[in-house]
Amino acid sequence: MAIHPVEFRYGTPEMRVIWEAENKLQKMLDVEAALAQAEGELGIIPAEAASEIVRKASTEFVTLERVNEIERDTKHDIASLVKALAEQCEGDAGEYVHFGATSNDIVDTSNSLLLRDSISVLRDKLTRVLEVLLALADENRDRVCIGRTHGQHALPTTYGMKFAIWADEIHRQLERLDACSERLCVGMMTGAVGTTAALGEEGLEVHERVSEILGLRPVLISNQVVQRDNHAEFIMVLANIATTLDKIALEIRNLQRTEIMEVGEKFDP
Question: What is the fold of 100-269?
Answer without folding.
Answer: Fumarase C; Chain A, domain 2 (1.20.200)
